[in-house]
Amino acid sequence: MSVRELILSVALWIGLLAVSATGVQGEAIAYSSNGDLYLINLDTNATTRLTDDRADAWAPAWSPEGTAIAFVSNADRNENVFVLHLDGSSAEPEQLTTNSADDRDPAWAPDSQRILFSSNRDGDFDLYVLSLGPGMDPQACRLLLGTDTNEVQASWSPDGERILFVSDRAGNNDLYVLKRDSLECVQLTTHEADDEDPAWSPQGTWIAFSSVRDGNRELYRIRPDGTGLQRLTEDPAIDWCPSWSPDGTQIVYCSFDPAGNYDALHDLVVLTIATGSVQRLTSSSADEWFPAWSGSPSD
User: Fold this and answer.
1) I want to staple 194 with a disulfide (CB 3.0 to 4.6 A). Which of 97, 125, 173, 277 is the partner?
2) Rounded to a whole number, what is the distance in angstroms from the first to the last CA of the chain?
3) To 10 degrees, the CA torsion angle through 102, 70, 105, 103?
4) Closest to 187 in 3D by CA, of 204, 207, 157, 167
5) Which residues make Cβ contacts (< 8 Å) with residue 233, sequence separation at least 6?
6) Is the four-CA dihedral 87, 92, 98, 100 of positive or negative sign?
7) How far apart are CA 116 and CA 198, in angstroms?
8) What tens digit of pLDDT does each residue of 9-68 get?
9) Which H helix or E strand runs over 122?
10) Domain extents for the chain?
11) Which stretches within the chain are classed as H helix?
12) Which 3 state secondary structure label does DSSP give 218?
């Protein structure tokens, strides 16, 4: 290990200890920028860098207790799922999947004992579940839903009884819900445009998602039974990748406006649902995307 790498490793270890000491439940947003993961403490506005290596890291997903973050990395030149522990037990990410295919879209089960992800290891993208804990075998993941179409961006409902995902089985990307008890698969959206990036509200009463159904990618919400569709954003920018606040009153999302500006960057924006007001959270010289609000269900 070089001197620089040693210094960076120590700095990251100190940063992780600080995060662990202060606690992050409902107080922070994790996101990806310049190929690494960062965390914004919403109480202090302080930013902590969580990863620093040559690989790209993205799609952070908080564990229910807020003590770990699952994410995707291309450290092995393909996409695999890793987990970063924020309890001070390790400064190095733990690799959870080791398949030569692309494993992506990690999401935690409400009991923190399983990771749900999508993988194209059998051709199309299907949904898999990996059980965590001592003696975990990364090769012993279980196929949850496999078809000849693509199933991606899945997450458990807060009560663990349903799994929300995106599928192109009807010709374009729509939202679906898989019921655990009956294994019945219910289609929630049927629009000819692509509906993507679904995220459960903390109470499981709403699903936020992005769609180009009105000509521009905006945020919407819908009930888990497919009723109550409501548009949440309406602006020239491209809005996507929503994540709910722990109390369900706000949504953080990624937004950028490339119209007439080829140097436009992705920034994080917070929407207050009751008023429709928005507040820009980041505006640096780099892209910030894939926000995940601690305390909310895995997105």
Assistant:
1) 173
2) 35
3) 10
4) 167
5) 218, 219, 239, 253, 271, 278
6) positive
7) 14
8) 433 434 444 454 334 444 899 999 999 999 999 988 899 999 998 899 999 999 999 999
9) strand 114-122
10) 1-92, 96-187, 198-299
11) 3-22
12) strand
Two structure tokens written together for 54 = 């040559």
Angle at 199 between CA 193 and CA 203, to 5 degrees: 135
Question: Any idea which fold 198-299 has?
Answer: Neuraminidase (2.120.10)
Angle at 224 between CA 223 and CA 227, to 5 degrees: 40
51, 66 in Cβ contact below 8 A?
no
Q: For the chain, what percent of residues have pLDDT higher than 90?
A: 75
User: d(Cα 198, Cα 165) in Å, to the nearest integer?
Assistant: 7
* Amino acid in the structure at residue 74: N
Q: Can you read off the two tokens belonging to residue 41?
A: 């403490």
